[in-house]
Amino acid sequence: MKLPEDPFILELLPEFIDSWIDELSNNFPKLMKDKNDTDLYRMAHTMKGSCYQFGLNELGDIGVELMKLIKNQEWEKVDSQCNYVLSEFVKYKEFVKSNI
Prior knowledge:
- This protein is an all-alpha fold.
- The protein has four helices and no strands.
């Protein structure tokens, strides 16, 4: 893990991470329960792009993978990947807290 060099992005990073932890903890379970592929795909697409913008490329790559899994309706893999990415956001949160 590494921190972005842009001071503006660095300033916004903790809030960005918290918003994704909230999204994945609170909104994702309902979307999965309903198998709402449209909103799940939109969420994965947004996560992909925003993670790349914040320099969290590994998480952006997972967003790309999630988009494919959602498109193919591979729900068990979608659930597993989202749980994994949530745990990664939590790790990033701790990393940022320790290094800013």
